[in-house]
């Protein structure tokens, strides 16, 4: 009997302690923003009592805390923030939490007038990584799976069609580079290409493997050397057709 009374007394005191601790807790309201915009889905954890919540679509949250508790605010794309609850927080209408967006750490680079900024030299992707054009990416997707998909793509002729698309794409890219490289004035005055034949001459040039390679490697000196002989041959063709 005495044991039971003792257990009841211990239980009573424990209940009083727990109740006394919880009675100090009050609901606190807050709003979370990042870059001055309210953010939804931020995890808010009271690390003292391990209770948590999540901010709503307008960035608001509410949580029961007491003075001295540590609140932890975290999200995948934001820098984790810790904040200690103060007495003044209970006197305000709500606390404002400003979080910072995570950024990619970039290596220091030196840029001069000849520097070309790419994803590689910024450290976003590794050097030497294969870069696919849209047409090449389609072909890779159609052939990388192997198995029945690869067989069906071969039977249906899809692979052959995509290979042709790559050839056309490369020629279009070469034409674009050629258009940027020379003005019409150069074709007419220096190469003696009739104005109505300039477009046809451009197609004629990109069909030449060496010239196309010079364009793709941005070797302007070689391109200017080759285009002279190509113009001579093209003009002869025009004369023969007349």
UniProtKB/TrEMBL annotation:
* Annotated organism of origin: Flavobacterium urumqiense
Superkingdom: Bacteria
Q: What's the protein here called?
A: CarboxypepD_reg-like domain-containing protein
């Amino acid at each position: 009997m005495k044991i039971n009374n003792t257990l009841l007394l211990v239980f009573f005191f424990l209940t009083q302690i727990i109740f006394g601790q919880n009675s100090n807790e009050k609901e606190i309201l807050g709003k979370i923003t990042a870059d001055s915009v309210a953010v939804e889905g931020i995890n808010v954890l009271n690390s003292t009592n391990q209770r948590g919540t999540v901010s709503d679509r307008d960035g608001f949250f509410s949580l029961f805390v007491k003075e001295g508790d540590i609140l932890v605010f975290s999200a995948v794309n934001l820098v984790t923030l810790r904040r200690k609850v103060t007495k003044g927080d209970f006197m305000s209408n709500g606390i404002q939490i400003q979080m910072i967006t995570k950024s990619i750490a970039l290596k220091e680079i030196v840029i001069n007038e000849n520097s070309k900024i790419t994803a590689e030299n910024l450290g976003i992707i590794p050097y030497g990584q294969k870069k696919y054009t849209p047409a090449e990416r389609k072909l890779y997707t159609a052939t990388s799976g192997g198995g029945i998909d690869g067989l069906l793509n071969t039977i249906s002729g899809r692979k052959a069609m995509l290979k042709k698309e790559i050839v056309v794409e490369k020629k279009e890219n070469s034409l674009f580079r050629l258009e940027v490289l020379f003005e019409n004035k150069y074709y007419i005055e220096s190469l003696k290409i009739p104005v109505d034949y300039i477009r046809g001459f451009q197609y004629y040039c990109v069909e030449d493997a060496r010239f196309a390679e010079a364009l793709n490697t941005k070797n302007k000196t070689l391109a200017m050397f080759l285009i002279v002989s190509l113009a001579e041959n093209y003009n002869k063709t025009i004369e023969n057709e007349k």
